[in-house]
């Protein structure tokens, strides 16, 4: 599967995102009760934030998933671990579907990691999924993430995990 990325347009994409983030499948996104205006506001704030960015992953030009990247020295993980130069935080969300495609989510996380590592300044990707999100833990492990420890964020108990460029390449079977 081939994906491209484009910056999220909070106003243009809000209806689509609202349907994705309020679906029961997206429970770990923690926006189940969000109104359309809440989604618009949340993504307007991200669009205005120099340390947090949202992008849509496109398949054949159509929105296929959401990816957020952030600087963990300034957002999400401030005070919860000691960030290193080259760290970038990441979230991704695949939308609900009536016709699941085998391997789709793994293809998405692989594309997200490739996209993040396209930036030569990125040395390591940091994630902090809910400790109960076992499906994403398995996906993270499949692309090279190594859990470090559980942390308490204001909104959840999270599993802090890291993936270096070398770990990602090794997980893909690419000689380093």
TrEMBL record:
The keyword Amino-acid biosynthesis does not apply. Pfam families: Acetyltransf_8. Pathway: Siderophore biosynthesis; mycobactin biosynthesis. InterPro entries: Acyl_CoA_acyltransferase, Acyltransferase_MbtK/IucB-like. Residues 6-53 form the Acyltransferase MbtK/IucB-like conserved domain. GO terms for molecular function: acyltransferase activity. SUPFAM superfamilies: Acyl-CoA N-acyltransferases (Nat) (SSF55729). Keywords: Acyltransferase, Transferase. Acyltransferase required for the direct transfer of medium- to long-chain fatty acyl moieties from a carrier protein (MbtL) on to the epsilon-amino group of lysine residue in the mycobactin core. This is Lysine N-acyltransferase MbtK.
